[in-house]
Give the backbone structure.
Amino acid sequence: MLEISNGQLAKHNKAAVVAARKAFPKEWPVGVIVTSNDSILEQAKKLPFTKLIVCRSSCPTAETIAPLLAKIQETESFSHWWTAHSAFGKDLFPRFVGELLRGKGDLNVVPISDITRIVDSSTFVRPIYAGNAVTTVQAHAESLKVVTIRPTSFTEDLPSDTDCKIQQFEFEPSQEQAEMCRWIEDRVSTSERPDLGSAEVVISGGRALKSAEGFKLLYDMADALGNAASKDY
């Protein structure tokens, strides 16, 4: 599932494609995008998909996208769904799983969040206990895996000359679904530093720094390391 951020295709979409490619080394994945913006669609077509499923929508919120993804799953019968472990992904995929299970209590769906490594198509590594430990989890081979990935763990380059077929998918949410949430605006904070979710280097500091002068050391170190992201707790 492709994500749009600040009017552009989000950078961590590439990481989701890399993760899918690691799970299935013999074939390129299928992309799904919900947008009404043709320039964003052109960006998506450059990612190495065998097929790109496109749904036109002027208000792509999690409440309206989740039933759309469930309808696509009924049609396509995918074995995996992938997206970044971002605010968007963490909002969308639980709703998507809920839509899949609505009235289908016997459906075998396995949500797996924030993975950092792929062992095989059913086995994944993810952090637990605030990242102080990692665990390896294995889903049943026949289950539908709904996976969010940590973008900084999948940073390989991808080719951009694959032959991508475009499939238009028509879907209109019900009145109830459309009225569940109303989009008002996108408000994106700006910073000279990279986003925490996509930064290659992150410097963090907390209570031990004690004062504003101490925290200035945090930012000076981030600058010395090439404009790294910084986080204070």
About this structure: The first helix runs from residue 13 to 23. The helical segments are 13-23, 38-45, 62-76, 87-101, 175-179, 212-224. The chain has a mean pLDDT of 85.
